[in-house]
Amino acid sequence: MVINALAPNGGTGEFSYSKNSYFQKESLGVEESKIEEEIEKKLDVKALASASNMTIRIADFGCATGPNTLVNAHKVLEAMKEKYKRQCPNTEAKPEYHVFFNDLPSNDFNTFFTSLPEDRSCFACGVPGSFYNRLFPHSCIHFACSSLALHFLSKSPEVLQEKKSPAWNKGRIHHTGASKEVVDAYANQFAEDVGKFLDARAMELVPGGMLVIVMPGVPHGMPYSDVINGMLFDCMGSILIDLSKEGVFDESKIDSFNFPYYASSPEEMRKVVERNGRFNIERMELTNPVPWLKNIEKVIPDWIIHVRVVMEAIFSRHFGNEVTHQMFQRLTKHLLDKVGILETKYRDKIQLLAVLQKKE
Question: Residue 89 domain-assigned?
Fold first, then answer.
């Protein structure tokens, strides 16, 4: 499978993910209590441990370089330990925990491994590879999660570059504000990719195992141009067009680039899960990922850096480092010019939580 997306910036420098993932941490924090609640209500830790020689295996798909994945893993571990204590209050035997951290081979696993705490209460290892493929043996994982990663498609829809196609996405870098044919092409690619993701996880998870997905979402029927991230893509596209008109590069490079990113509505995700047929949907909802945010104007510069560390590699591969640098340099001003509109959008429920359980 062609993987157009690349891992976030590695290392520990100014534009590294390890130094610029605060917004992601806060967004994931919104879902913590809900995930713990689902583990408490739905996950039979005692039965899972007993059936696997007292070893619980957890997989994080899309771990990046930390530190957020470590916080998430710790929360899940603590919730599972508490559930086991309640199920087995009079036993001294306790399960051991093995956590697998997965990301693309281009991910900076070295930086990730150096961030692992020495006193961790689990065994840990890295697993390079695309989560759209199988990564583990049959029926060996008890709990799996993917946090802010599944919105990156395995590839851009190929039809978007066919000049004779109604879905030719000329002059745009995303489906934001594009024709229905372009939006449909992205939606179809998302459904195909998530279908493969679920097929792989259905093979890897034990019966009764849990899969948690957190990713950008969109209310059903809302145009993506009305979503704050859609405005971000519009600004990026406008800046690239300006740079091409200034003679920095040929405009045809814009026509041949479509950012492999798709935010799903709960309805779309539900259809893909039901088509797969091997999971029960325990929870599916949208939430506001930044309830703490009071003034978006003040955080725009930091937000752009956070966006840059995640997306820079994909833009640089196509447009080159200098064009990409100039785009991000101009992006802050473009968004500050739209701050009045952005102020009305950041309270929207645009984060999707899906809690699925493998059927027995």
Answer: yes
